## 1
Amino acid sequence: MHIPDGLLDAKTFGTAWAIGGVFMAFAVAKTNKELKERQIPFMGVMAAFIFAAQMINLPIGVGVSGHLLGGVMAAVLLGPWSASIIMTTVLALQAFVFLDGGVTALGANIINMAIIGVFAGYGIYLLFRKTWPNRTGTLVGTFVGSWVSVVLAATACAIELALSGQGSLKILLTGLLTWHVLIGLVEAVIATAVVGYLTQVRPDLVKQTAKA
Amino acid sequence: MRKEIVVLLILAVVLALFVSPFASSSPDGLERVGEDHGFIDNAEELINSPIPDYAIPGITNEKVATSVAGIVGTLLTLAVAYGIGYLVRNRSESGSKVRNQQGGGK
């Protein structure tokens, strides 16, 4: 759901850039505390994996495809602030190097996929972890949180497009959600598989949230 | 680096090199809605991307162009994210308690 240039009007993309910029400055400060020295290589690998996985569009219906976003997956493993920086890094490279998502629209894409797509889903994940403080809670939380993150990111995307006069909110929301409730399932399956694999041998790879 | 993380990196490289050329070329959810309702025509290109649409310019074989773009992007992302992680952590080390492990830094 990378919004290209030309779809958002100046007030919308300007506001989104401002919000995204302030938030990321905050995320850098938070990541200072959240990220451990030995996790830096993991952060690089996680970003690389998300970039590669986002190239793999899977058919989800006739004439429509979707790919992983990865925000909740990264948040579960590295913490939400590090995850938002990872997502922003991927989105910026996609916009400036690969013409995937616009440069004026980058702020909005950051809000959708690096902020909402990380924190909203991570919040859901934490609820599950509180209920089931074990591996089951981690995996079910990752699954549900990932699905929710895609649906809410698509909702935000529809709102931004509507604010920019690309159509009525009702039409945009209906259209985007129709596909993204399905794309969210793809997201949930991949994220849960990756988190499941990485925590199979070393459960400690999951970011410890109890004392955070 | 832990074995599991190395496996994840290998998986990323395999996806980029060998799977990306066979990804679905159908529009994604947003593009599809944009086609259905006509607003996708308002999209424009504001910058000259070096590797537009995940295809290295000048390589005529589409699959090879995508594959090379995939590995370039994956390694670039690895390097940039690692660098950002390093810089972010390095800043904290001057101002907080975790300065005991190494004297290197910047």
## 2
Amino acid sequence: MSESRAPLPAIDAEQAIAVIIGFIRAQLEQTGFRRLVVGLSGGVDSATVAFLAARAIGPDNLLAVRMPYRSSSPASEVDAMRVVAALGCRTERVEITPMVEPMLALIRGPDEASLQVRRGNVMARQRMIVLYDRSAAFDALVAGTGNKTEALLGYGTLHGDMAAGIVPIGDLYKSQLRAVAEALGVPEGILSKPPSADLWPGQTDEGELGATYDDLDRVLFALVDRRWSEARCAAAGLDPGLVASVAQRVARNEFKRQLPPAAKLSLRTPGIDHLYPRRRPGSRRGS
Amino acid sequence: MEYRVALAQIAPHLGDVDANLELAGGWLRRAENEGAALTVFPELALTGYLLSDLVPEVAIRADDPRLAALSREVPGMLLAIGFVEETDGHRYCNSAALLRDGVLLGVHRKVYLPTYGMFDEGRFTRPGDRIRTIAAGSPVGRIGLSICEDFWHASLPMIQALDGADLLVNLAAGPARAPGGPAGLAAIAGWHKMQDTYALLGTVAIAFCNRVGNEEGLTFWGGSRLLGADGSTIAQGPLYDEALVVGTLEADDLRLQRYGLPLLADERLELVRRELDRIIAERADLPAVTDETVP
């Protein structure tokens, strides 16, 4: 991979942290919430969101929910508890195994081959149900933990881990997150372990995606942020095969980044010509 | 003669005109305590920026009594403030008003509405079609109002300088392009270079007031500035945080600068117009304009 001609996206961690903290506070102010709920896996993304949330609104206003599955790595929960201890935020544990297993047992069919993917999606959506339930009980907004690399590649479950009220790190590439996490003081062990959705033992993101996050981010930064053609990416030394597969993946997953379309029938249609900011006078909670 | 200028680098409430009138009133009183002769608020200070279809709901007329009342709160002070204007012909414009003692001295309607990248202004507001200066009396003289993107077209501030502006006032709602990295700092540096250049080439003082705060994920960067007619920085506000940025301008500096650097007086306006006429004709594939056809 060409490091000089197709670099990783740069980041000024302190500046990014200041912007995200301002964003979190403004979003809460505009929505009328004072608290946040985040699903804490023990990985770097959710740890970073928890650190940012605690800085923005204080640890008392943050509820970190741990939601292990029977096959989840015990080390993940140990790491999640290290984040809780470092922040002094509130935490709850809701194991999802007794919710996921009965559903999968109910629907057995000829698609056993897809069981692993189905199980992963059911787990992600079950966690979403828990988070939204806890957010209602805690009177809080759900902070998503998705990043820009995942969003562009579509590496997430629609209405699962992608469901959230705000997405604080949604415009940070995975390779940028590390610097931000480090500046925030996320524990070293969490920074250095291989990223994993932890949906089944031994799973790693980079194994599933077929490339390292650094290589993926170089390609995404060139294709998306710099608007380079695939030919120009190749000329700059990026692997043409990887560039083609990433470009295809970004295009194929566009639907995951947008609201579903409705057939336009009326004079004004939400999303087409009924366009408003998410919050306005009168829409704030309690107003 | 010296006078003080205050730049109210605020974070307006999106879509809430009454709340923003109250907010502006508080900052005006602070500016009054600082002895400001002129206080500048950002673009769309009365409405917030990402309005979309809220535009007709928050629009007011330039002679709205609430605007006059705000100005009367600070007797003798000049007030420049951004709002959504509904004109006589029900045109919705991104406008800036200049008032004193409740009297509307003039209005500028944003000429260049960015509708690209992260901007969608041309979809919801209509462009202005005047580039003028406004007589503001002693000690400020003539003011050329402009709004944010207007400054990315050098012709606009240069026309105002040639039209007799002593002070260019730009009201902005500039969202940070890439605030997490060097590209963002480069974009802010671009704004500053451009202001330095206009002050230098226009031999004109500049007051730039940019908002802060966050709307729908966009973060506005602030960094308001006051520049002397020699291009020097007189005051500069912080990035991202609310602030009342205050500085002192000396009207005599401009007079001296224009003797030492008579760029405006030397400007070849007839030549510029001839060349512009030619470019306009050629772009439209019309017959070439000759010296004979131009009186």
